[in-house]
Write a structure and sequence with these properties.
By secondary structure, this protein is mostly beta strands. It is built from two helices and 20 strands.
Length: 284
């Protein structure tokens, strides 16, 4: 004689099966989702849904960055210490402000960092600014530096970079730019031009005409199987709790063509940023 399960046992088995399916679905979704912003057919950026870090840049349907590069995308120097390693990075929220702007709020140590990302799909341009808030217990503390980076780019084959504002404007490639070596524009707004192959290049430029700009530096470091492009600000001063410091703007644009083609496109980016003679200047 075959035993018959009770109603309560059937209900319990059904519930366990339902919870098991729900749990598996939740795990799949939570480990696979990344926040995407823009148009992948033209230009888009992707953020990690756990940390809020900018993890991938997509141009014309293909990622132009490589996986890896660690979890660090920014750091703040308080007094003489960098803050990232003193407190775990925590995502507060990612919110879409408009069709062109997404805001990412993160915390590390005693600091909250709110990043505003503006994506121009048609010109393949990303503009970033940061709002830093000290949330510690000290009556005041000193901020001495801040930097933020893009994801890691490949650096092999025809990849090269140079800083046009420096003289002589030497070009660096995989043969003459060693692992962990760094180069930068030395606290000025000189752009950096990076070519990862002869058909695509990048312009990195800091806008020093906005009223919240500080001494910028466009930099590059060879690491993690590629190069990391950074934009830093030599901000110096005392800050009280819950006071907001805004820094930026940092601009990044993808160009079809080699580094020399990108060099000739720098003024197009500058015009789009408003770096033009005033419209109300005297006629003479």
């Amino acid at each position: 004689m075959t035993p018959v399960a009770s109603d309560s046992a059937n209900k319990q088995a059904t519930m366990q099966k339902f919870l098991s399916i729900l749990f598996c679905s939740f795990v799949f979704i939570s480990t696979s989702l990344a926040y995407e912003f823009g148009d992948t057919a033209k230009f888009a950026v992707r953020f990690d849904d756990n940390t809020g870090n900018l993890t991938e840049i997509v141009y014309k349907g293909e990622p132009i960055t490589i996986p890896g590069g660690g979890d660090q995308r920014f750091d703040i120097m308080q007094d003489n210490d960098w803050m990232f390693w003193k407190g775990k990075l925590k995502l507060i929220k990612i919110e879409k402000i408009s069709d062109a702007v997404v805001r990412v709020i993160q915390e590390t140590g005693d600091w909250q960092a709110a990043f505003n990302y503006t994506v121009d799909v048609d010109t393949a341009t990303l503009k970033r600014s940061a709002e830093l808030t000290y949330r510690g217990n000290n009556e005041h503390t000193k901020i001495r530096n801040f930097w933020m980076s893009l994801p890691t780019f490949p650096f092999k084959g025809d990849a090269e970079f140079f800083i046009p504002g420096q003289y002589p404007s030497k070009k660096y490639n995989a043969e003459n730019f060693a692992e962990n070596e760094r180069k930068g524009s030395m606290r000025n707004s000189a752009p950096l031009v990076f070519q990862w192959d002869k058909s695509k290049s990048i312009i990195l430029l800091s806008d020093n005409l906005v009223d919240y700009a500080d001494n910028p530096n466009n930099g590059i470091e060879r690491r993690d199987g590629g190069v990391r492009l950074t934009q830093s600000y030599n901000v110096l001063g005392y800050i009280k709790p819950n006071t907001v410091i805004k820094l930026g703007d940092s601009c990044f644009r993808v160009i079809d063509g080699d580094s020399e083609t990108a060099l000739l496109k720098i003024h197009d980016l500058m015009r789009d940023m408003g770096h033009v003679p005033p419209a109300d200047r005297p006629k003479w």
